[in-house]
Amino acid sequence: MALLDRARSSTPAVLSAGASWLPQRRRLAIIAGLLAAAMTWLIVMALVAVGWAMSPQGTTGFTDVVGVASAAWFLANGGRITIDGITLGVVPLGFWVIATWITARGWARIRQSSPRSVSTDARDYLAGYGAFIVLAGLLTMLGHARPDPSAFLVSWLVPSLALCIDLARHPDELDRNSLLVRVWQATPAWARDAVRPATHALAGMSILALLTVALAVVVHWSTVSQIADSVAPGAMGSLILILIQLAYVPTLALWALSFVAGPGFQVATEGSITLAGSHPGLLPMVPVLGAIPVDAIYPPVAWVAVLLPVGVGVLMGRTALRGRSGDTTWRHQFGTLCAAAGLAAGAVGAICLIASGPAGSGRLASVGPSPAPMVGALAVELALGGLLWWAYERYVRATRSRTEAE
Length: 406
Prior knowledge:
The protein is mainly alpha-helical.
């Protein structure tokens, strides 16, 4: 631990010495952004290195491992990579969330001690993160895996999202005359009021999706355990396999959300898992995929599951109208509910667009839900739930209050 602490404390000093021509505050912000990216890269590197140490190495050297880990880092950050002509684009959203959290923590440390404006610190912090993106791209040349050119742009989403989340939590840090503040003030009040219920809807959908995945694993545990036994990677290999599958749990939750919303998802080409029936096709030998239902046709009553996202919409409506039913017009309330449903569904669609993609060639050329149908279904279901609560507040509760007053 002492060596690790010395390494952490000495790294900024070494980098600062090499960049003494930069102002100190700018150096600190650039170094913080670079180190935030490096921390997430080290996590991927550790997993790949352990896997390499356990496998027959043959002609594969450690430099190849560094190259493959760097390419895997791009995949974990939302990009696509190509290995020996096979494209991989199914993103482990669990790692994506961890990378966003680490990056947000690094940004928060900079803002705690910086007297500069948010835009200036953000520019330098993103510059440091971008420098590591370039470095990671160069390191992929040591191996046989290559990131797609779009991966260099998609990787910027992690620091950008981290900064947006922190600014949403601390809006007072923004300059009152900044462009963001002026745009926010010019936004209609009903649209501004939609942000909070939209975040509550996202939280509700996340819980619903994770519970659906947990239920599927429990119900099909025998299949999951049989596949795990057949793979038999050994003790350390099993640990790595579990960690990788945990990183993909949020991705599976996205599939589950699309399932209960109606559009469903696919793993193998020409296969589909929807509320109408499950036709998964031939699946890879990955234990957690054993939780996907076997081939079956479901009765029409299965469509009752779409009431679950509608229930999330009801909670969204309750959040939007809490304490505001009497001080805003029905048009304002209606607009807020519809905007909140659109924001929440659009955010899920954006994540779906990032996380879905190929997991190989042939039958695995397109894995995951289709973004457009998923966004449309969720927007309608959330809006329906929100409007149901609006109707309850406007007519049922209001009538009851008048009756009690009389």
